[in-house]
């Protein structure tokens, strides 16, 4: 077997370069490849890799894999209801220019569970940073107006009204946060209401974290909305 391999290598070592370009027909190339394949199989005892078997094994255009972007076939339509996803599975901002202008209102809520120690301090307005409820209320209003800067695909909405309210609940030593946003336009204000209560809750945590790290912000949710194509909705 060693002698056969040496003979195969010597054959290629004695090949001389062509003095000038030489053109081969497809028939000559196919015959040459076939002869080399037979010699390689004879010398090494195994057929050559399929990639050397010739151009006949190359995939046809119909067999070539389709491009997939982010796991989604570009030709596939977006799932029903996911308006922020296009046909290629990529994020997009929805075009609302054709939507009807209507009055839109949304109400959201969340709860901040303080624990008895922090609850008593907030109730007595004795937190070191100051008025927890007052600062959180203003933070919620500001957040509603900055929603499109916080959430990339939200539209910049001209809000006509934002209201945030925080109420102490002694039953579970929590603060119940409610936020309302309103506008007259082509898209809803649910995200504005949700942003308001979320940032208000975060502000409560910031104002109180020196007294306790065990504060929990929970139950952030939309309570109801009105206006727009989908009409009224209530939890």
Automatic annotation (TrEMBL):
Originating species: Salvia divinorum (Maria pastora)
Region described as Disordered: spans on this chain: 47-81
One GO biological process term? Mo-molybdopterin cofactor biosynthetic process
Report what the protein is called: cyclic pyranopterin monophosphate synthase
Give residue spans, biased composition: Low complexity. Answer: 51-61
Domain Molybdopterin cofactor biosynthesis C (MoaC), residue spans: 93-228
Q: Quick one: which pathway?
A: Cofactor biosynthesis; molybdopterin biosynthesis
Keyword Lyase listed? The answer is yes
Catalytic reaction(s) noted: (8S)-3',8-cyclo-7,8-dihydroguanosine 5'-triphosphate = cyclic pyranopterin phosphate + diphosphate
Gene Ontology MF terms in the entry: cyclic pyranopterin monophosphate synthase activity
Question: What are the EC numbers?
Answer: 4.6.1.17
Task: Name the UniProt key words of this record, in alphabetical order.
Answer: Lyase, Molybdenum cofactor biosynthesis
């Amino acid at each position: 077997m060693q002698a056969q391999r040496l003979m195969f290598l010597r054959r290629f070592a004695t090949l001389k370069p062509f003095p000038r370009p030489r053109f081969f027909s497809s028939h000559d190339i196919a015959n040459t490849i076939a002869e080399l394949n037979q010699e390689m199989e004879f010398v090494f005892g195994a057929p050559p890799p399929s990639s050397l078997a010739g151009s006949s094994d190359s995939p046809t255009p119909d067999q070539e894999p389709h491009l997939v972007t982010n796991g989604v076939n570009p030709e596939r339509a977006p799932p029903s209801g996911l308006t922020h996803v296009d046909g290629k599975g990529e994020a997009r901002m929805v075009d609302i220019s054709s939507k009807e202008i209507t009055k839109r209102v949304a109400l959201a809520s969340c709860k901040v569970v303080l624990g008895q120690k922090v609850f008593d301090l907030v109730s007595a307005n004795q937190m070191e940073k100051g008025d927890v409820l007052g600062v959180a209320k203003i933070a919620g209003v500001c957040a509603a107006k900055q929603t499109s800067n916080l959430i990339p695909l939200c539209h910049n909405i001209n809000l006509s009204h934002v209201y945030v309210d925080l109420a102490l609940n002694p039953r579970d030593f929590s603060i119940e946060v409610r936020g309302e946003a309103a506008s007259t336009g082509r898209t809803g204000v649910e995200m504005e209401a949700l942003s308001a209560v979320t940032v208000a809750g975060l502000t409560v945590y910031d104002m109180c974290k020196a007294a306790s790290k065990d504060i929990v912000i929970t139950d952030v949710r939309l309570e109801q909305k009105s206006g727009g194509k989908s009409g009224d909705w209530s939890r």
